[in-house]
Amino acid sequence: MEKFIKLKNEMIQEASALPITDWELIISESEDVSASAFKGEINKEASSLSTAMAVRVIASGFEGTAMTEALDADEIRGLVARAYDNAITGEKSVSAPLFEGEADYPETESFEEMSVTLRDVKEAALRKLSEIMAADGRVSDGSTASAAYGRVVKYYASSRGIELSSHRDNCYVMASAKVSDDEEVKNAYSVKEGNLDGDVTEAVSKAVKSLHAEKAVGGKYDIVFSPDSMQQILETFFSVFSGKSSAYDLTRYKGREGEKVASECIRIVDDPLYPGYRCQASYDGDGCPVYTKDVITDGVLNTLLYNMEFAARCGKKTTGNGYRSAASGNGGITSYSFYIAPGNESREEVFRKAEGGIYVTEMKGFHAGANDISGDFSIESAGFLIEDGRADKPVKEFTVSGNFYELLENAAAVADDLEFDVTLAESRFGSPSVLVKNLSVSGK
């Protein structure tokens, strides 16, 4: 922190020597270690320590940015000069006003910093591989396990008197189990975050359950999307909730705040302070305070997500969802723990409402099968037929087609089994199992 303050003081001195109206200083310092194990040995490992610093200056009504990977006083002198030159020669309009005024920044939970080395993640990867290999005699040598740790320190300061810093770190273990019974081979994965001792043997049972799947018969089905599947859908179509998409007419939700846009069972939350999550945030990339918000409540759209730039363009107030990279200086709109809130019914109760339907547990090909502007999707899937109130016979090689906006409108039930994807960042997606009626399935 002390070195960041010295850089800020140098920034103030250099900016005062030039006709600069305003400035922002963004610094990040990150450490990452990871390893993967295959056939009883480490086949990949990586360790990196990176730093980045970006300045944005406003001069003569224009803005300029400059970046570097070196965190020293000599470098920042040249950085300010380059940013100023970019402002007066590039004549780029100011993309976003600077946040100013008194603000109450929320407190994040205090977590003891992890002490994780490359050796630790290598040992964890080997240990997790050994555990899944021992879990079932059908697990083959094609199985893998991995572990990773990441730490980030961020710093923000501006000419408006704002000075902020944050620290986060997290880790995860993951296993991909390959099982075979001499007739068929199946793969499944499991991942756990928060420590290097998480149980990932669930990957084995998931793979075993999917053996001998039959091809699904095409038609109209009630679909229950698993938490993992719905997370992928929510992440794919996240941009429809962005103020940037609204500004460019790329979302049907433009101008619809206060209107009913989804089923009453749908509540979508963006929470930078999700309890127990190690990667919480108290401020965004624009230096604005963050807060927990219901994007949708009982099917009603309350707000889209805005940073300073697109709040100004759309005539809104920022929601504290600004992102700005110290490595590139670029800004944008981000989310935090962005999730569909859990309902009050168990997964089994939701299954009973979808008798004869399909429980979708695997979806792949979103990059080619989804249009985040229209909301349309057609995704290769796999899962289980729902019979007698449970996920029963495995099915494969079918395509689920629909539209994201209509999916939210037609959601019939939400289970209480909320799960989040695993990431080492502040932004993640979560969902429970969600029942959607009468979706098209293409199969045999």
List the helices and strands and how they pair.
Blueprint (H helix, E strand, L loop, with lengths): L1 H15 L5 E17 L2 E19 L2 E7 L4 H18 L1 E2 L24 H18 L8 E15 L4 E18 L4 E9 L8 H8 L4 E2 L3 E7 L1 H10 L6 H5 L20 E4 L21 E5 L2 E2 L6 H7 L7 E3 L6 E3 L3 E4 L6 H6 L5 E7 L1 H4 L6 E12 L2 E14 H7 E4 L4 E2 L7 E4 L2 E9 L2
Parallel strand pairs: 8-18, 9-16, 15-21
Antiparallel strand pairs: 1-2, 1-5, 2-3, 3-4, 5-6, 6-7, 9-22, 10-11, 10-15, 11-12, 13-14, 16-17, 17-18, 18-22, 19-22, 20-21
Helix pairs in contact: 1-2
Task: Kindly list the characteristics that best describe this protein.
444 residues; single chain; 7-stranded antiparallel β-sheet; globular; alpha+beta
Low-confidence stretches: none
Q: Radius of gyration, rounded?
A: 24 Å
Instruction: Please state the average pLDDT score.
Output: 95
Secondary structure: helix percent: 10-25%
In short:
The chain has 444 residues and is α+β, with helices and mostly antiparallel strands. The chain is 22% helix and 38% strand.
Description:
With 444 residues, the protein is an alpha+beta fold. Helix content is 22%, strand content 38%. The chain contains 10 helices and 22 strands. It has helices spanning 2-16, 73-90, 118-135, 202-209, 227-236, 243-247, 308-314, 347-352, 366-369, 404-410, and strands at residues 22-38, 41-59, 62-68, 92-93, 144-158, 163-180, 185-193, 214-215, 219-225, 268-271, 293-297, 300-301, 322-324, 331-333, 337-340, 358-364, 376-387, 390-403, 411-414, 419-420, 428-431, 434-442. Strands 4-3-2-1-5-6-7 form a 7-stranded antiparallel sheet. Strand 6 (163-180) and strand 7 (185-193) form a beta hairpin. The protein is globular, with a radius of gyration of 24 Å. The N and C termini lie far apart (61 Å).
